[in-house]
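Researcher: Quick test of sequence recovery. Tokens follow.
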């Protein structure tokens, strides 16, 4: 989960910032890059980085980067090797509810895409709530694109996720997470209509032990 999809966790970790402007960054190494049920790194390891700029911890803009592997074209060209996502949004809170609204642009610079442009725009809307002394977080996200990946027409995804955060162990904070989603694509344009799920154990690293 990227920082922009988990803003409530960022607020609880840092508290109220003394400055209106906050810069945040994170990096991750994954056994593989899976997004909405699709393996985007050909079931190989992926390295990812993200940088976010926040204004008053509500408005934000950022960039996300990851290696990808979509295989090769008919002439042996790599279809895509890098994903760069750009986004702007705002995330207000109302009581114990956190909301997230964003406009994103997923791009694949240098990609060889004979079937259509891989890059696409999405609109995100999300709501989340923490329970059990903030140990459990439930999030519901909707992603909508007027022209999805590889020009496959309109696409909509509804995704529910749950994250349970355990107590800190030395430098690490274990988190058990799962998600369930469904994507509605335009089948006549080559889109997809399917359900997906995932489960993961994450060890978040913090240089300041308890």
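Model:
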């Amino acid at each position: 989960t990227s920082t922009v999809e988990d803003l409530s966790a960022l607020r609880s970790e840092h508290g109220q910032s003394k400055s209106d402007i906050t810069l945040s960054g994170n990096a991750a190494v994954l056994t593989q890059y899976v997004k909405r049920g699709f393996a985007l790194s050909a079931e190989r390891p992926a390295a990812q980085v993200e940088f976010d700029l926040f204004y008053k911890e509500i408005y934000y803009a950022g960039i996300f980067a990851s290696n990808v592997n979509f295989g090769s074209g008919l002439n042996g060209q790599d279809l895509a090797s890098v994903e760069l996502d750009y986004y702007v949004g705002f995330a207000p809170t109302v009581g114990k509810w956190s909301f997230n609204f964003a406009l994103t642009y997923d791009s694949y610079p240098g990609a060889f895409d004979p079937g259509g442009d891989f890059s696409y725009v999405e609109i995100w809307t999300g709501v989340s709530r923490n329970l059990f002394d903030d140990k459990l977080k439930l999030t519901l996200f909707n992603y909508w694109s007027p022209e999805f990946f590889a020009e496959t027409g309109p696409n909509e995804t509804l995704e529910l996720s749950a994250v349970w955060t355990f107590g800190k162990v030395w430098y690490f904070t274990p988190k058990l997470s799962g998600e369930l989603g469904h994507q509605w694509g335009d089948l006549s344009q080559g889109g997809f209509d399917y359900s997906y799920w995932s489960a993961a154990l994450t060890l978040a690293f913090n240089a300041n032990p308890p």
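The mean pLDDT is 88.
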